[in-house]
């Protein structure tokens, strides 16, 4: 018990930079200071995150087999989470199509990338980036199609997806990447995590709390079912420890902010999705040190 308490405290100290970035974003939003949210979102999704994905894939020490294992495991875990989540939403008499993306897809960007790097180092970041690339693809091309009135014609041309494909192709073909390209991608990618954390904090500050009751149910699906699905897939595929721990951690992440944005734009349940994001994020941050300890043990 003492060892768990010591790990909890040390994990809190390690997470302070992340929490400070999120906290600054929250204060920024509460004080209603001008915040270029649209610009930051476009910059992160179109430039810095693709650069981070490209740099990580072309420089990672993980072999191609490991990255492929992560991609397959991610798809299986997300599918399992979606199936169980749909069943629970139906049992609780909540609209399945509208809330399933919020319940099943984790925040693999804002929180997943920095926390995986914190927990497992560069190898953890590589796993998280691979997970994020697959999760982003599913979110913007498949899950969003569940919502009514969505036009996703251009979603297949996502810069993140294109960067992933190019980087993987270069790895498979053993094409050398010029040092200046790698350094440019590194510099651009380095600002991704701080911008994501600031944006997360700002979004949390502005999210309405009117949908907390049903949102808490959706949050429970995301956290509990997500963790269980991750553990089940890791056990079934018998992944090596770092891959297993990082994947489990990713599947236990809170609801993605982008799912709330989609729900707000295309449905009448934006407040419920907002409540799910708010509750799941707060609960995850409170339990994050224990989650880090658990995934290291896993």
From TrEMBL:
One of its GO terms (cellular component) is membrane. Its main location: membrane. It is a multi-pass membrane protein. PANTHER family: AUXIN EFFLUX CARRIER FAMILY PROTEIN, SLR1864 PROTEIN. It is found in: Membrane. Keywords: Cell membrane, Membrane, Transmembrane, Transmembrane helix, Transport. It comes from the Bacteria. The keyword Membrane applies. Coiled coil: none annotated. The chain crosses the membrane at residues 7-29, 35-58, 70-92, 123-147, 159-181, 187-207, 219-237, 243-263, 275-294. This is Membrane transport protein. One of its GO terms (biological process) is transmembrane transport. InterPro entries: Mem_transp_PIN-like. It comes from Achromobacter piechaudii. The lineage of its organism: Bacteria, Pseudomonadati, Pseudomonadota, Betaproteobacteria, Burkholderiales.
């Amino acid at each position: 018990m003492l060892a768990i308490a010591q790990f909890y405290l040390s994990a809190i100290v390690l997470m302070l930079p992340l929490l400070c970035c999120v906290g600054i974003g929250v204060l920024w939003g509460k004080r209603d200071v001008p915040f270029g949210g649209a610009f930051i979102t476009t910059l992160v999704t179109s430039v810095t995150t693709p650069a981070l994905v490209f740099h990580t894939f072309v420089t990672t020490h993980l072999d191609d087999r490991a990255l492929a294992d992560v991609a397959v495991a991610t798809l299986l875990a997300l599918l399992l989470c979606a199936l169980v989540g749909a069943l629970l939403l139906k049992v609780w008499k909540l609209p399945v199509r509208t809330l399933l993306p919020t319940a099943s897809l984790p925040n693999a960007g804002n929180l997943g990338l920095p926390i995986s790097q914190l927990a497992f180092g560069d190898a953890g970041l590589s796993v998280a980036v691979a997970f994020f690339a697959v999760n982003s693809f599913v979110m913007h091309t498949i899950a969003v199609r569940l919502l009514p009135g969505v036009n996703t014609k251009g979603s297949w041309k996502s810069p993140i997806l294109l960067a992933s494909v190019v980087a993987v192709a270069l790895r498979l073909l053993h094409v050398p990447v010029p040092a200046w390209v790698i350094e440019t991608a590194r510099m651009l990618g380095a600002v991704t995590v701080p911008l994501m954390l600031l944006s997360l904090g700002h979004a949390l500050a502005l999210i309405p709390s009117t949908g907390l009751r049903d949102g808490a149910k959706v949050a429970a699906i995301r956290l509990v079912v997500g963790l269980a699905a991750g553990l089940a897939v890791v056990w079934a595929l018998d992944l090596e420890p770092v891959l297993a721990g990082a994947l489990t951690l990713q599947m236990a992440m809170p609801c993605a902010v982008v799912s709330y944005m989609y729900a707000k734009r295309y449905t009448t349940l934006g407040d419920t999705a907002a409540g799910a994001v708010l509750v799941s994020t707060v609960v995850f941050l409170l339990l994050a040190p224990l989650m880090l300890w658990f995934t290291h043990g896993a």
